[in-house]
Amino acid sequence: MFLGEVIKMDKLNNKVAIIGGGLTGLVAASELQKKGYKNVTIFEKEERLGGKLHTIYYNGRSYELGAIFGLPSQIYLKSLMKELHIKTDGPKLSRINYDSNGHKIMPIPKVALGDFLKELDRLPKVLAHYPSLDDIFIHDIEVSLMLPFSEWCDLHNFNVLKTIYIQYFTIFGLGDINEVPALYVLRILNDKNLMSFMELPEFLTWKDGVSSLIKYLIEEIKDIRFGQKVTNIFLSKNENLWVQTPFETLEFDQIIITAPLEQYDHLSIMGEGMMEHLSVIKYQSFNVYAIIGKNVPRGCGCILENLYNYKNGHMILWDSRWDVSNGEEMIIVYAYSPLNNSKESNFEIIKKDLLKLGVCNPRLYQAKLWHHCPYVDTRELQDGFYNKMAAIQGKNNIFFAGEIMSTLSMNNCICYAKHLIKRYF
Prior knowledge:
425 residues; six-stranded mixed β-sheet; 15 helices; Zeta_carotene_desat/Oxidored; oxidoreductase activity; FAD/NAD-bd_sf; FAD-dependent oxidoreductase; Amino_oxidase
């Protein structure tokens, strides 16, 4: 046996811990096992896997409390589906825009349609000047991408597109374009993804919900520790890594953290200054409500006037998902968390919105508060946030693969996980 083969065999015997059982963690574990790694362990603090891939059931039908669908333009998601033999057999979704009283409205005024088409045609040409957007690992960010997205639009005279991005970015709880830097908006919703929305394609949905992806990934992964929150990571005297949970302490050669990084910023192994560095990461507070009622509106609808900060707490999107019209049924409602000075509870605000739309006797069935879509602001980007992350990637054999590294979307998570394993393992 050649020396290179011996080194490879030794490497494949390494024990690898993955902290976080969301899509990124599961794909990373699957990729490691495909490469021949024999000892891969996932630690998941919850009793379920999937993170924001969170499907629930009511009357035998699937409903989504997290991610809703994929886009035809998302090639890594489609490739994973093909690999796992998953078909798009779910409900067809098409969104209609409304005012708060349930009246249909146009997304943009007719007088602005000509300008919009010109801006849409110009968008790919402008994005071609930003090569960093095509890099899987974020680095060498162009200065203007560090600006809030609304300012970036002003820089390029994208006046109508700015409004459209509110409707396709802010609507899914991804944040306020006056605050979130253009880097994140354009990595999540690039020109191809935007066109997928505009062309009203067959969105990728699944009869058994988005959790179908998790179901098939789990079948390939041998060692998953549910309900095991990692409380500490430390080095032994021989410089191997130890992972501690309330139940056990295990030794590993390498660790991949896919869970939110600020959960581990206090650990001494992360190095001096990491607490301060990771504390600058910001999140969106986005609520999803599963509600039972009668006379629920059909299909998927967006209330455009609620897509602004001062309307936080109000319903911005609903999805009744299945065409059911016999008595009570479920509707999924999405809203940012209310402003701190709100005197009403989260659900009371939503209930009033639903009553205005004609829903009878709305009652809460389940709810989920997501702190998601992590980002850092303009100042932190200018201060070299991602250069600092690149400098510590792999230090002490610890690797970072959370959403702050990949940016949010199923496609981006899959892409980042695959390329992390390819580059470092």
